TrEMBL record:
Origin organism lineage: Bacteria, Candidatus Collieribacteriota
InterPro entries: Cell_wall_metabolism_enzyme, Dup_hybrid_motif, LysM, LysM_dom_sf, M23ase_b-sheet_dom
Keywords: Membrane, Transmembrane, Transmembrane helix
Listed name of the protein: Peptidase M23 family protein
Segments forming domain LysM: 138-182, 188-236
Length: 386
């Protein structure tokens, strides 16, 4: 039994020696020469890369990139087009704006360009939806019942942008059949004048120069310096039209002045200072209310107090104005008046006439700009008026 075991052990030992010798022979006869050739080829390319400070490195790298590109173009369709999961990943990566042919119900007679009707639907095609803005101003004929607001909503711009582009057209006079100019985006359409630059235009309309440059349909005489030419049209996205220029002061005293009220004290109860329609409310950039009336009308003291400002002392956008100190921590301001009926230092009772509604200063029509001022800021007049 022991002799048989020894024979088996010797046979196994002899078998492994045979396998070891066979592997060693295979490595020496086949792998070693091939590795030597590989090292030789690699050494050749490395030498070329280092030769003359990398003179050929760009050529070799570009060649490798071309090879990868050719492989991608050749193998890409078979790897992506018919892969549903890849399509889903591609669509998600592009904001779900990819529509695949298998997700669209074909209409009768529909055919993919370049394919027969038999195999057209077998190919997975895809289309990217364009969200490119309009390039130019559009002429639009107003339809029955439309307003600036409804037209602005239809074109995706704000109302002010349409008003700015159609100066002289009053909102109340918009009628069916009238032609309006509609800007491509919310903002201002500007015609370049002599001496203007992209930066001065941006400053005028309170936007960054980059916003004008980024609008894809604005053109420049020099794309590096963004030079602009006299007479060309620029779209200023989100631009704001500056206020109307300040008008010259006029004779602001009324023919009939309101007499001083003598000793007074504020009641703390406020009345409406003018009759008309509220055209602009209290906002972060407009800490007042505007009361408009086409026919003008008398401006009344909202409460009793002493006149501390009467006139147009600084040629500012308020125009002719009256300010009343009510003696209880409150002051009221009445701006854009056409005529003033009080003088500085006199007292007025609540409801006394202090002037006439007008359109002086930075104003586009008859209205009263009314502020209530406190020691800690300005308050919303609508919270105080009865």
């Amino acid at each position: 039994m022991s002799s048989l075991k020894k024979a088996i052990d010797y046979w196994i030992f002899d078998f492994f020696r045979f396998v070891k010798s066979l592997v060693s022979y295979f490595i020496r006869s086949y792998l070693s020469p091939r590795f030597a050739k590989f090292e030789g080829v690699k050494g050749f390319f490395v030498g070329k890369l280092y030769q003359q400070r990398g003179k050929y490195s760009r050529l070799i790298v570009n060649g490798a990139m071309v090879a990868v590109l050719v492989l991608g173009v050749t193998m890409g369709p078979s790897l992506v087009v018919n892969d549903t999961q890849a399509q889903a990943m591609l669509s998600s990566g592009l904001g779900n704006r990819i529509v695949f042919a298998q997700d669209v119900t074909p209409t009768a007679g529909a055919q993919v360009l370049g394919l027969t009707s038999d195999n057209a639907m077998a190919v997975d095609t895809m289309t990217q939806v364009s969200d490119k803005p309009r390039a130019e101003v559009t002429e639009y004929k107003v339809e029955e019942g439309e307003t600036f607001a409804s037209i602005a909503k239809k074109f995706g711009v704000d109302v002010d942008s349409i008003k700015w582009l159609n100066k002289g057209v009053q909102e109340k006079k918009v009628r069916a059949g009238m032609t309006l100019q509609i800007p491509p985006v919310s903002g201002v359409i500007h015609t370049v004048k002599s001496g203007e630059t992209i930066y001065s235009v941006a400053k005028r309309y309170n936007v960054s120069a980059q916003a004008i440059v980024d609008f894809p349909f604005n053109e420049f005489s020099n794309d590096e310096t963004f030079a602009i030419a006299i007479g060309q049209t620029l779209v200023v996205p989100d631009g704001e039209m500056p206020d109307e220029p300040v008008t010259a002061p006029r004779n602001n005293l009324a023919q009939q002045m309101t007499p001083s009220a003598g000793v007074i004290s504020a009641t703390g109860s406020w009345i409406w200072p003018a009759a008309g329609k509220i055209t602009q409310g209290f906002k972060s950039w407009h800490k007042a209310i505007d009361i408009a009336n086409r026919d003008g009308g008398a401006i009344l003291a909202a409460d009793s107090g002493t006149v501390v400002v009467a006139g147009w002392p600084d040629n500012s956008g308020y125009g002719n104005r009256v300010m009343i100190d009510h003696g209880n921590g409150y002051r009221t301001l009445y701006a854009h008046l056409s005529k003033i009926s009080v003088v500085i230092g006199q007292t007025v009772k609540r409801g006394n006439v202090i002037g006439q509604m007008g359109s002086t200063g930075r104003s586009t029509g008859n209205h009263l700009h009314f502020e209530i001022r406190m020691t800690n800021g300005l308050g919303d007049p609508l919270a105080y008026l009865r």
